[in-house]
Design a protein that fits this description.
about 240 residues; alpha+beta; two-stranded antiparallel ribbon
Length: about 240
């Protein structure tokens, strides 16, 4: 749980004797202390709860463990939930890397669920376990598809692209991935009523395939380009 830290905002480092700061960077919190009767020593168990903010040493970037140990905090609920959801997806991405087609299957199955009128599910049992909200977010509509399920699919794709952009920022995204991404983006655009933001919600331009010196060359947007375009969708209200 120490691997993912919130980037959007910081929290105060707990004023508690159980807090230990390692090398002025990592914040650890004591969760258990046991005395060994055989050796006479004390064994302390600590967990990382954050990373010190170099700009403001009295504050830190929290991780998942922080929210478990300190449920009462100053982070807005929607920001916390978005962060925890992102951590869950990133962990799943680590497993999906061993089988890349799994993420494609998830998206295809989710789109099929939506086309089968997934908007009418109430408890998430028909939508792959994802709950469906009874109301639309501000500026959005649910008269076409289940918006919440749609955003779940988008989250899976977004964090997958984010990871690929971090590893291969200048690599051109392959056409098949573009088609899958655009299917989800197009459905999200249908649910947005605010015409002022629609021009910024663009679909991904499909790469072109050419032959040069006997080799097949793909020319188009890179993973980092696509990530920038998808950020407009990510900030839409939920």
């Amino acid at each position: 749980m120490a691997g993912y830290y919130m980037k959007e905002m910081t929290v105060p480092i707990p004023d508690d004797r159980r807090v230990v700061i390692r090398r002025e960077k990592t914040v650890e919190y004591e969760i258990d202390r046991n005395r060994s009767e055989d050796k006479g020593d004390t064994r302390v168990t600590r967990r990382v709860i954050g990373k010190v903010d170099p700009v403001n040493p009295g504050r830190m970037f929290p991780n998942e463990m922080y929210f478990q140990l300190f449920p009462e905090n100053e982070v807005p609920e929607e920001v916390r939930d978005e962060f925890l959801r992102g951590c869950e997806i990133k962990r799943r991405m680590q497993e999906i890397r061993r089988s890349p087609e799994e993420i494609v299957d998830r998206v295809i199955n989710g789109l099929n669920e939506l086309r089968d009128d997934g908007r009418n599910v109430g408890d998430g049992s028909e939508s792959g376990g994802f709950p469906v909200a009874p109301r639309a977010p501000f500026g959005c509509s649910v008269n076409n598809l289940s918006y919440i399920l749609l955003r779940r699919l988008f989250d899976d794709i977004y964090y997958s692209v984010e990871e690929l952009a971090g590893k291969y920022p200048n690599e051109v995204i392959v056409p098949f991935k573009v088609k899958q991404i655009n299917e989800v983006l197009e459905e999200i655009r249908k649910n947005v009523d605010d015409e002022g933001i629609l021009p910024y919600l663009r679909l991904i331009e499909e790469p072109g395939i050419t032959e040069e010196n006997g080799s097949t060359i793909i020319k188009g947007l890179t993973y980092s380009d696509v990530l920038l375009m998808m950020k407009w969708y990510k900030v839409l209200p939920r």
